[in-house]
Design a protein that fits this description.
The complex is a heterodimer of chains A (about 270) and B (about 260). Chain A has about 270 residues and is an all-alpha fold. Chain A contains twelve helices and no strands. Chain A has two domains: about 45 residues; about 200 residues, MetI-like fold (Orthogonal Bundle), CATH 1.10.3720. In chain A, helix 11 packs antiparallel against helix 12. Chain B has a domain of about 170 residues: Rossmann fold (3-Layer(aba) Sandwich), CATH 3.40.50.300. Classes of the chains: A mainly alpha (about 270), B alpha/beta (about 260). At the A-B interface, helix 8 and helix 9 of A face strand 6 and helix 3 of B.
């Protein structure tokens, strides 16, 4: 039984390999360095362009003004209030969208009849821009966070159902057959092979949903306009406080990036067998 | 001959229905298999070899006829029969131990006795120290042995091997067939192997059944008797009779390309 291809010699590092590793490290550092320089460059040029009057900071804002706004928001305490509300709405929408989507996908997998009956409806709902449902949701649910959460949920729900269901149907038929030869019931097939084999599909649905939930929440806040980063952006736009708009967008970008990273961490945790 | 067959296949016919029409996969197939026998089933592709195996496993019901195991009619999968799929079909997210107890877990038959039996199988066939590894960390041959132990763990009397070695590269395949044959002999199992590899069929089996083109019927049955010093599939290929059987079966298959 040959195991040779699985064993990588770690003790002996040839000079060539050492040189290769060193070069790789230098290249990686170059990339990171350039990325940081690019960011600093943009900030500096933006600031200088504003100071020298190439652009009008009243319309484009400016890094120093954004910083000032951030400090003010922090002092007034509103920074955490608005960010917290948006974050909470996104998390609830994101988690419930993924959970409900997976549950619906299980129902479709369980009954081929249901899946075929609902197929055209799913196609239409998937094609429909969910944002159009915003006003309806506000009328039905009311002018507040529940409507915003519903918006975030709707926007990710159909994509999750379709993605996870197609993941379920792509599970190797021979694996299901193997379980059947052991006399497995449908519930056992779901538990032992369909769900665990679909963890990568569900996680890639999570990754898509992180982005979609933010879209849903911000659009919801645009429409409802009471609190949250979306509210700050709309309010700032209406009263021409572009500093506030830009600051909110930057906080939004940071929060979305952190949430995406958290999902990537989750992926590593669940897929250690890879 | 021994008195009572372990598996009795009686006048099996199988028709598949599809919108495009009806496909007759098997027609009037009858076969008796006795305890401890190793049977190979060969035939041109699409002749219904795998269909026959699925019927014996109780996965599908034949249109006509019946299969009896120990005088009982097969209508659903039983723990008398263990099935080895094409490719190993190990679950990548389960470690080796979790993979080999899969059948016991499904049959809700995990107890001290079955766990000890499975541990012994792993120990006997050199896989015990790999029980915490994941399938992706094992070579193709080892994975195949794990798959066999997963089948043996439920302690079936009959093993069904559905082109079980076809995904392996040639060298590994020869070694694995040798190992599997030894294990099956040692555990004293009855085995039915479906394959399109004539050399594999002849070198492993006591009896080779040749199926005709669709609809599959039994064209010929050969009782294999090879004079070889080493009674392993590789050793058997050295026997003078090997070529004779090979040519006869090859003519039966009547292959035109």
């Amino acid at each position: 039984m040959s195991m040779s291809k699985k064993i990588i010699p770690v003790q002996v590092i040839s000079p060539e390999h050492e040189a290769y590793l060193r070069e790789r490290k230098i290249y990686r550092r170059k990339i990171l360095g350039t990325q940081i320089l690019l960011l600093i460059g943009i900030i500096i040029i933006w600031e200088i362009a504003g100071r020298l009057g190439w652009i009008d900071p009243f319309i484009t804002s400016q890094p120093s003004r954004i910083w000032k706004t951030l400090i003010n928001l922090h002092r007034e305490g509103v920074l955490y209030y608005h960010t917290g509300i948006t974050l909470l709405e996104t998390m609830i929408g994101f988690i419930s969208g993924t959970l409900m989507g997976t549950i619906f996908a299980i129902i479709l997998w369980w009954s081929d009849f249901t899946a075929e009956v609902l197929d055209p409806y799913m196609v239409v709902l998937n094609a429909l821009p969910k944002i159009a449902l915003g006003p309806i949701l506000i009328v039905w649910i009311g002018n507040g966070p529940p409507a915003i959460i519903a918006m975030a949920l709707f926007i990710s729900l159909i994509v999750t159902i379709l993605g996870v269901y197609s993941g379920f149907t792509q599970v190797d038929g021979d694996k299901i057959k193997l379980l059947k030869t052991f006399g497995a019931t449908k519930l056992q097939i779901l538990q032992k092979v369909i769900l665990p084999a679909s963890v990568p599909t569900i996680i890639s649905a999570l990754k898509i949903n992180v982005g979609l939930s933010w879209v849903g929440v911000i659009v919801g806040e645009f429409l409802v306009s009471k609190a949250g980063l979306g509210y700050l952006i709309v309010y700032g736009g209406q009263v021409f406080k572009l500093d506030l708009v830009m600051t909110s967008v930057i906080i939004l970008a940071a929060a979305a990036a952190i949430m995406y990273k958290a999902v990537v961490y989750l992926e590593k945790l669940f897929l250690k067998w890879r | 001959m021994r008195a009572k067959p372990l598996v009795s296949i009686r006048n099996i016919s199988m028709k598949y229905q599809s919108p495009e029409g009806e496909i007759e996969a098997l027609k009037n197939v009858s076969l008796d298999i006795y305890e401890g026998e190793f049977i190979s089933i060969v035939g041109p592709s699409g002749c219904g070899k795998s269909t026959l195996l699925n019927i014996i496993a109780g996965l599908i019901e034949p249109s006509e006829g019946e299969v009896l195991i120990n005088d009982k009619i097969v209508c659903r999968p039983t723990d008398m029969v263990g099935y080895m799929p094409q490719r190993d079909q190990l679950f990548e997210w389960r470690n080796i131990w979790k993979n080999v107890i899969l059948g016991l877990e499904i049959q809700k038959n995990l107890n001290e006795q079955t766990v000890n039996f499975t541990r012994k199988l792993l120990r006997d066939y050199g896989l015990f120290e790999f029980r915490h590894k994941y399938p992706s960390q094992l070579s193709g041959g080892m994975r195949q042995r794990v798959a066999l132990i997963r089948t043996l763990a439920i302690n079936p009397d009959i093993l069904l091997l559905d082109e079980a070695f076809s995904a392996l590269d040639y060298q590994t395949r020869l070694i694995v067939t040798d190992e599997v044959k030894q294990i099956i002999n040692k555990e004293n199992k009855t085995a039915i192997l479906v394959t399109h590899d004539l050399a594999e069929a002849i070198s492993m089996a006591d009896k080779v059944v040749v199926l005709s083109k669709r609809p599959g019927t039994i064209k010929n049955t050969y009782t294999i008797q090879l004079t070889c010093d080493v009674k392993t599939p590789i050793g058997c290929r050295e026997a003078p009779e090997f070529r004779e059987y090979f040519n006869k079966i090859w003519r039966d298959l009547d292959v035109h390309v």
